[in-house]
Structures are given as structure tokens and as C-alpha cells.
Amino acid sequence: MKEEQNLIPMRAAVRTVVEFSIYGEDLQIGGSTRMVEGGNAHRARQSFAREAITGYQSEVALSITVFGEAVALEISGRADGLFERGSLCVVEEIKLASSGALNMADAWPEHWAQAGCYGHMLCEARGYEAVCLRVLYVDTEGGEAACFERVVDAGKLASDFHMLANAYLIHVEEGVAWRVARDAGLAKLAFPYGEYRKGQRDFAGNVYVAIRDRKRLLAQAPTGIGKTMAALFPALKALGEGLTGQIFYLTARTTGKQAALSALDRLRQAGLALRVLEMTAKEKCCPREGGMHCDPEVCPYSKGYYLRIGDALEALRAQGGDWKSDIVYRLACARMVCPFECSLALCELADVVVCDYNYAFDPGARLQSFFSNRRDRHDLTLLIDEAHHLVDRGRDMLSASIDSGALRGLRKEWRRAHGAKNPLYRAATTLIRAMELVRRDMGEETEAWRADAPLVDEARAFAQWAAEAMAARELPGRMLLDQFLTAMVYNACVDRYDDTYVTLLQRQGKELAVQLSCLDPAPYLAKCTARLAGVVAFSATLSPLRGYARLLGINPEADGLLSLASPFPPSNLWVVGRRVSTRWAHRADTAAEVAASVAAMVKARVGNYLCMFPSYAYLRTIRELLEPLLPDTCLLTQSGGMGEAERTEFLAQFVPGERSILGLVVMGGAFGEGIDLPGDRLCGVAVVGIGLPQVGVERETLRAYYQKVMDDGFAYAYRYPGITRVQQAVGRVIRTARDVGVALLIDDRFFHHEVAALLPSHWQPIAPARCAEEVSDLLQVFWEEKGV
């Protein structure tokens, strides 16, 4: 018996098995919305049926196992409803009705198939000779819109079921064959660089243990340790040993994504069989001008998508496992399938997925089939690069806002197209009027906050009518889609609203923006990272480590914390400090001192430098003072809104030459981290101020919240993110073991204990300079000692 063989246990949902063989032709719009509405409709119908039908059972768990050559596949699911009618058991499959349900001649084939799978399972488990299959289409309130029934005998149910199961089983066994070959290669995989760097083996070992023990690990690993490979290599070894089933490498920036892809390319080029997928944002890979309106009536890449996706996936499998975004885009477009949806399909096949944070954490963008609905989600591993970004990104993902000006724009266009009596026009008007009442309550304040979520009923009504309009394909499409998604995100935020939220109100002339702002993403992040096969969050700047653990939902007592020393000789970096106040109230008085100190750094040695400021206004002030002090120096200035091409051109100028270059940039911006200027491309960095975020209503609400829950509101709202910016800024200087350079910290608070305690040990002690001349003297001594 195959049951007695040493088969690999696998699991699949009934719906997955059915949809593998039976599917529609086109991509459908509004999928996430209909999922929510469908869930509500299911519950409403089931609640009614339990009262109206004697013995009605809802959400009945059923399963059956089928056997292949290498796999024992458990197929399971929950029957929406079961009840007895005379001698027959009725299997009810509930589906949300579409607008044309009343005119349906029969149920959809995939819906009959799902009901039939449950019918077969019941016949096997209870010995029924036949069952009544019932496909019921309901409205959003659970009311009956259409109903279809048929009695099917056990033999027919078994035949239909095994046809579906066997087709899916072949697919599963092809995947198993791939994994067997992949795991054989991973077993032989050696560390690609021969020797580990200082600290790299410790990091890699802790990553492996975290995956093996299914724990979270938060690691502070300074620049130069080789974090990317130290995270990926042990994770891949664990993958080959069956300790995890798939790896998601999450990044916040393009540079992090490229580093991961380069590391994986190195392994694949050495002969490792590995499927690596790069996910790209939908708006960046849509081949249509204007894009992202995935309506099969207007998008040829959505029309007939399911008829062509199989061919596209086969072509991608045939060309190997290098599924970078440009490769996927080219092959998908050649076969007229949506590149983004093609990437989602490839997620099921990939061994490693390299993507942005939002695919794992954003409630509106996360891959639900992987991180919410998947039964074996504990077989996923997350590697979270530059994890210090996840705090603010987490807040942004969990927040939502509605803008009355944007709503007025939609309403105006809608009236032109459909008149003022249209339900959507009225819903938008009601929502705008409710926002006007909130604005009046603010009085003369331009910014304010409140502890409850307004506009709840009005936003839900607007979203409902917007969904109806989209289903009817009423124009203007893109404007409607944008406001519909805004309302849906807002409504989802209302459902999460608790004491970790606050409502921020911002007056913009006659208009108002209402933002439901998440103050503390830690509980949500903790839930997202629970029950996975290891979660490793790492960065060079996580100081203090226990503080960041708290912010990221990591339990310092139950999870792992790791802090590693810099692998570079401490003598390669010389840190000089100036006790000058850069507080906003003192900036005008100390600007000349700041400029003189920066100029002294540049004059100490011809080379390339960066000077980082807390704001553009401060940057411009100091630049005016620097121009006469540094007449022979090329001054480059960051401007707001620089595009990628402009940023690349800016950095390209940092090459060694006979003339010094000084780049004036803003801390925390595009040049504050994530840039790599090794060797003589960068000799030093000046940091003006301690990087504190700008004071405002939102930041002050954070301060009040963390004062309440952590008894140190200023640290969590201002000091910790500020010091992270400072560390990232100075981290631009030493990029390799051969680099030498200087850092000039300009602010008296760098010498205060609460700030100094957060700075890396290899910066200590900071050499104090009493004046600009001493800055020059100290740095010249350093350069002479280094033979420069």
C-alpha cells in the first residue's frame, strides 16, 4: 500500500485543488473587496440558516488524503453548510452573488466542483451513497439571490474528485522533484567566500538557530560584516534540510534588494539550482500607460489571462530559476499576461522571494495566500534587511487618511458623467459634509488630534457605492479606483482602531485631511511574525537593541538579540566632536561656528566629503557661509524631489581628484543611507545635529504615547530615530577593511550621557575640539598617521 510507504506529507486546500484545473478566463477586479464582502455574506447566511434550518452546521472541517509516487497529499477545507433533508445530506456552498446572479442559468463549474469535493469527502467518511449539492448565491447581507441543486451519487463524486486531485498531485510531485534536486545542491553548498569575516560566522550561526528553533532574532550587525550573505547562506542551508519551506528576503530600498539578488546570483552561478523571484510594485511593472486598472474590458493583459498564464509559467520554468523583474516582465508581456499577476503565480514556485516589506506586512498589499490563509505558513522564513526602517514603515502601512479635496474632485467628475442623483455622488457628498463638520470642530487650529475614529458610517457607505460603480464599470475609472482604495484602507483601519491609534486632523485651506495614525506597530508586527519558521531582522543601526526589539514586536526575553562589533579596525575611523548647539533656537547664532568647523574638515585633506543636516533650510544657511570659506571646493547640494537619475548623477561626481568635493545633504534622505562610496570616493562625513525628527502634532502624539506605555516618550519618539540617522550617516565613511576616514559630529548633545551611550563603541572616545582650528589640527594628525 502506498499509505505504508515513506511518502512526503503535503497539504492543499480544496479551493486550491479545484482552481488548479477549473478557472475562468479573465482576471477580475476588486478581488480583495469581494473577499471581505464575501466573508461577511457567508457569516450572515450561516447565522440565518442556523436559526431557520434544523440541524444546520456551518464551517464543517473535512479532509481526505490521496497518494502519489512520492507524496501523500491531504486535501482539506471547510464546508460552508451541512444539513439533512429527508434521507439526503445537503452540502451547501455559499458564494457572493455578482450583479447578474438573478439571470444565471446554472452555477459556475468551479463552485459545483468545490461542493462536489466536500460531497466526496462526506461519502467516504460517512458511507453516503449520494448527497445533494447546493450552490447558493447570496447578496452582501446574506439574502438568497440564486440557488442551484443537484443530487450526485458517490461514484460520480469520487470520479470527479480524483480527476481534480490527480491533476494537482502531478503538479505537486513536479515541485517535490525540483526540491529534491535543489536540496541535493544545497547539501553540498559551501560558504562562497572561503573564509568568514569577523563577526560573520557568529551572525550566520544565530540565523540558522533562529530558523531551526522557529524563533525571532534581532541582530545589530555593523557595515562590513557581510550581513546579506550571512543571512542568506544559513537560511538556504536550513531550506535544504527541510527546516523551512520558503525564504522571503524583505528590503526597504532598491540597494538592499540588489545586494540580495547579487548574493543569490553568486550562488546560482556556482551551479546551485535555485528559483529566485524579484517582486516589483504593481505600478512599476504595468505595461499599460496609466496602468493598474485591471479590468478585462480595457486591459488585454487581464483579458484571457488564465488561458495564457500556464504557457508563461512554463516558459519561465524552462529558462531556469532567475526570475528578476525584467525577465518576468519581458516573458509575461510576450505572452500577453499581467506581469504583476505572473509574479504572484511564480511566488508559489520560488525558493527565495526578494521583495519590499509591504508584501509581508501591509494589510492591503500583503500576500494573503502566504501570510494569512496558508495552513503551513509556519514553513516560511523572513529575512528583514535594514530593519530599523520597519518601525516607521509599519506605522505608515497601518495608517490611513481621507482627503476632502480629492473627494470633491471625484464628485465633480462624477456629476458631469452621471448627474447629482447618482448614489455614489450622494455618498461622496455625505462624506464631504461629515468632514466639514469635523473641520468646524477644530476651530482655528490647523492641526489637531482626537482619540476616536470619525467618518465611520460615511466612509463605509461611500466604499460600498464605489464598489457597485466599479463592478458596473462606470467612468471615470482611475479616479474612482483611487478613492475607492482610499476608503477601503480607511475602513480597514477603523476595524483595527484601538489605543495604539490616534486621529490626526490637518486643515488645508478649506479642505481637511483626516488620518487614522498608528502610533505603535509592534503588536501587529508581532502577530505577523508569529508561528513562522524563523524571523531574522537585522541592521547596522539598532541602538538601543532592546528598545528596537520593543518597537518591532520582538520579545527580548523569549526571542534572540545579537549585537556584533565592527569588523574593521577602530583606528580606521577618527571621530571628532564639536560642542556647538544646533538647536533650532540657537542656529542663527552658531551658524558661523558650524560652517567654520565643516570647512576645517575639508581643508585638513583634499578629498570628497558629505555634510548632513536636519533640514533643507539649515543646509541652505550653512552653504551660504561655506562658499567664501571653501572657494576651491566643489559644493554639491541635494534638492528636494531629486529623481533617480539626478541622484545617480550626484553620486557619480564623487571620484578622487585634485579638488575637494563637499556634498551637502539631508539626514535620513536619499543620501543619508544606502549609498556606497568606498575608498577615496569618500574621506569623511560631518553630521550637524543629532538627527531628531521634526517636532509636530504627529511626533508629539508619539511622544505622549510612549511616555505612557514606556515611561520614556522623548527617547522613543525623538532620540532613538535621531541616533539611527546619525549612525547611518557616519556609516557611509568606512565601507571596506582598507578604508580610512573621519567623522565630525557637531552638537554639544553628542557629549551628553543619554546620547553618547547610544553611539557605537568603536567611535569612543569622541575627540573634543574646542574650535574650528582644533578640528583641523586633530584631523591633520590623523591623516599624517595614516600616511595620507
Describe the structure concisely:
The protein is α/β, with parallel strands linked by helices and 788 residues long. It has 27 helices and 25 strands. The strands form four sheets. It has an eight-stranded parallel beta sheet with strand order 10-9-11-8-12-17-7-18, sandwiched between helices. It has a seven-stranded parallel beta sheet with strand order 21-22-20-23-24-19-25, sandwiched between helices. Strands 1, 2, 3, 4, 5 and 6 form a six-stranded mixed beta sheet that branches.
Number of strands: 25
- Cα-atom radius of gyration: 30 Å
The description of the largest β-sheet is: 8 strands, parallel
Mean pLDDT: 92
Tally of alpha and pi helices? 27
Structural class: alpha/beta
Helix content: 40-55%
The fraction of residues assigned to DSSP E strands is 15-25%
Walk across the major sheet and give the strand order: 10-9-11-8-12-17-7-18
Low-pLDDT parts are none
Descriptive terms for the model:
45% helix; seven-stranded parallel beta sheet; 788 residues; alpha/beta; eight-stranded parallel beta sheet
Outline the structure in words.
There is one protein chain. α4 crosses α6 and α24 crosses α25. The model has no long low-confidence stretch (mean pLDDT 92). 45% of the residues lie in helices and 20% in strands. It is α/β, with parallel strands linked by helices and 788 residues long. It contains 27 helices and 25 strands. The longest helix has 35 residues. An eight-stranded parallel sheet has the order 10-9-11-8-12-17-7-18, with helices on both faces. A hairpin with a 5-residue loop joins β5 and β6.
